[in-house]
Amino acid sequence: MKPFVNTTQLEEEIGSTIVQASFEVHKQLGPGLLENIYEICLIYQLRKFGLEVTEQLKVPIIYDGQILSQNHLRLDLIVNNLVIIELKAVEMMHPVFKAQIISYLKLTNKNLGYLINFNVPLIKDGITRIRRN
Fold it and tell me: Which of 7, 66, 73, 83 is the most buried (most CB within 10 A)?
């Protein structure tokens, strides 16, 4: 098993702010809304905290030095071009969601990502921190 890639202090600070912003959004909205509502509000909250947020970024699939596809994958959010966020608003988390963010981390060569499910009574139970390995 490969060791995890070390994260930088800046990535950790951004991650901490992402968690704080997620708590703020969940505190105001609670569970049960559509994913895109949480996305819009989280983007607002992250920008309010002074972070740069890019949304719905296309992720190219590069294999053997060739770009094989540019239209099949789209990550939800990337913060300060360093930390990926994949948002959900689902009853049950499926293992494919974790595979999705791991794929984004590897394909973008980023070290840190957050899988956040807002459809939970306590948001701390809906946040999963994932490092690239």
Answer: 83
Which tokens belong to 3?
């060791």
pLDDT tens per residue, range 52-66: 999 999 988 888 988
Q: List, in order, residues 6 or more apart from 87 with CB less than 8 Å away.
A: 35, 38, 39, 42, 76, 77, 116, 117, 118
Cβ neighbour number for residue 104 with a 10 Å cutoff: 23
pLDDT one-digit tens code per residue, 79-111:
999 999 999 999 999 999 999 999 999 999 999
**Neighbour-count burial for 32-59, b at 16+ CB within 10 Å, e otherwise:** eeeeeebbebbbebbeeeebebeeeeeb
The predicted model scores a pTM of: 0.91
Domain ranges of the chain: 9-131
